[in-house]
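So, can you check this one?
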Amino acid sequence: MDIVYFNGPVQNADFTFAERPGKAVGIRMAEALNGLLGLAPVPHLWNTVTLAGDVRHRCAADRDTVGREQREARALAAKYAPGPVPASGLFTDTTPAVASLALEMIQSLLAEGTVTVRELPVRLCVRCGHMMGMTAADDCRSCGNGVTRGARRALLVFDRAEDRPVLERADFHAAGARTPVHLLNMAHNVPRQLVLSRTRDHGVCLSPLGLEGLVLDPRAGLHIAVLAAAAGHGSVQPVMTVTENAAANVAAYGAPFRRYGTTRLRYALHGRVPYGVVNARLYEVHRAEAVRGLFTDWYLPLCAARERSGVSAARLPALLKFLRRVDLARPDRPQAEVLADVRHRAAAGDMSWVMDARALACALADRENATGLAGSKGGARS
């Protein structure tokens, strides 16, 4: 099967999954769908090309003994504490495979004229040289200085053709699903000229293209990270899990990087999950402690894939009761024809099955047989 789900690379900011489980919804959604499709686990994808990461590294007392890459790796491992990192591994937007593919793609895009390198006027921080944009800006976000100077600098630029939208219905992976109109309208609102190079201490270095001191914009790089991860799994149809808000922020910059050769990247939208109101009392009231892990780590991310505007906190009790009832009644073995139908729908992006008791029971039975993780029927915590 060519379709494989990958999480949209999560920014390596200052949090842990224990503190903010909502950050893992895209990861858990991809894991659940890949598991249902019978696919091997994929690595968790991370965005490490951040200005905040640059600042943290510069301000660290051990910056002379701990390299930026090592610091990022430590921060990523800490996200999973007190547990280990996933056995499938971690994959960032600066790994050698991503950097190699990025340069390969950019050189191809340069050759065909989709992107260009040309000098443009910019504002630079007089203290640290950070590129702050084309016009006067607020204080430098890299060092806090408020004084800039004008300069001309060679940049990597994507000029969007007037009749070429940056986002189309075909860029979303969902059979028959309604694509949010406001995302499609982005095609008419983004600037015609997008700068794809940035001043960062960490990232995909663009010096081989003659752009010294610049790296690829992370909004473009995270798309390439998904393509590179997909290549490692032999998939030409990678599907990137992403919220509507994230899609709005990155889609324009990813427009030149969603397709390469026979590989086509699409977005699978998901909503947010109100984990803040999922507490012990909820499970106690509904006598559902046995399915706690199953509910938080597996079922709610799947519900988020169905309810792309977000899972309502008011619906949590009903969803928990539904899952517990279906789990208690699930068969020991999934029916072959039902499982085939559920897999077909999951591969096509049709998530309506998560509220279909027969289909959900089949998916639960398949999950237990594949992983040995039982729900309430097995008497163990998932």
